[in-house]
Amino acid sequence: MVDDPASRSTILTGDRPTGPLHLGHYAGSLRNRVRLQGEHDQTLLIADLQGLTDNAGRAADVRANVLEVALDYLAVGIDPARTTIALQSAIPELCELTVLYLNLVTVARLERNPTTRAEVELRGFRRDVPAGFLCYPVSQAADVTGFRATLVPVGDDQLPMIELTNEIVRRLAHLAGRPVLAECRPLLSDTPRLPGVDGRKASKSLGNAIPLSAGPDVLRAKVQAMFTDPSHVRASDPGRTEGNVVFAYLDAFDPDQDGVAALAARYREGGLGDVAVKRRLVEVLDALVAPIRDRREALARDPGEVLSIVRRGSERSRPVVASVVADVRRVFHLDDAIGA
Ligand code: TRP
């Protein structure tokens, strides 16, 4: 299709393996990634080192989730022949790059990052925030530049990370007196952020997201529990569709968007009950998730094969990152210190 080499970009994006991926990941990013593979050189990074920055006490879980995230990728249609799947900790060059970049960023700058600030708040950290956690945006800048990525498909919460990455790239160019690495730009999804079933921000710790691997019973229970419009008591009452989680999910996933518009109009007028819209949503989500679940189950029978895809992807990635490390070491005069 779009195989014009001039329009190919290098894409890097990633996920922390701290739990199974959910429908929010699918709407916000995974379906974009499936669409982009083949048109661009794409790598998906399972960011286990980043996952550890606030989960050092749950390291075994992080490790176990590496396989789960890889299964989620493959089950939604990521094709390892067209997308590289790599594991952050299997590419130690990324750590060297992180350490060098830490010299280009101030603590004050890291403390101003709105995304990590919100995460620190959510986790109840105070002075006890792990240093690695405060610094993970620098490690993410190493991920992006280490792969020489120019396009980063992410949710809008990741924009501060992209900004920091480009600041580091400019600092490096300033130090070197010439461009060293390319800047990158974000690719935002056109689906607004999906709320959790309770209407709050979807989060693993709140348990309000719907896992991609959800079975039919979980799916039905989650839809049942969805926040709608508390003042829409009888079906005949007019209802609100804004802030209504069922409609947020229908907007994101129902292939029949004209049908959704018609349902929404009837709901607002009065005469359409929550039961009916929820029934439609269960149908839509089941049709979406069932094939993903089936593929996932089939793939899960051979975890060795899945992990070897990740191992090969990581090995293939190392020379690229090593070449970036060499470029950055040169800027810091580390290449000729002892003639090595
Ligand atoms: N911080 C990202 C998230 O929580 C995950 C991530 C790690 C990432 N490394 C990355 C995203 C590199 C984009 C590029 O979703």
Which consecutive residue ranges, at least 5 long each, have pLDDT under 50? 1-5
SSE order: EHEHHEHHHHHEHEHHHHH
Question: What is the CATH class of the largest domain?
Answer: Alpha Beta
The proportion of residues forming helix, as a percent range, comes to 40-55%
Which CATH architecture of the largest domain? Answer: 3-Layer(aba) Sandwich
Q: Give me the number of helical elements.
A: 14
CATH topology of the largest domain: Rossmann fold
Output mean pLDDT: 94
| Spatial strand sequence of the major β-sheet | 1-2-3
Structural category: mainly alpha
Q: Rough shape?
A: elongated
- Largest sheet: number of strands, sense, barrel closure: 3 strands, parallel
- Report the bound ligands by name, code or SMILES: tryptophan
CATH superfamily of the largest domain: HUPs
Description:
The protein has helices at 23-36, 48-52, 59-76, 93-101, 107-111, 114-122, 131-134, 136-146, 159-176, 216-224, 245-253, 257-269, 274-300, 303-331, and strands spanning 10-15, 41-46, 83-87, 151-154, 185-188. It has 340 residues and is mostly helical. The protein has 2 domains: 5-195 and 303-331, Rossmann fold; 216-297, Tyrosyl-Transfer RNA Synthetase. Helix 1 links the parallel strand 1 and strand 2 (41-46). Helix 4 (93-101) crosses helix 8 and helix 11 packs across helix 13 (274-300). The protein is elongated. The protein binds tryptophan. Tryptophan binds next to strand 1, helix 8 and strand 4.
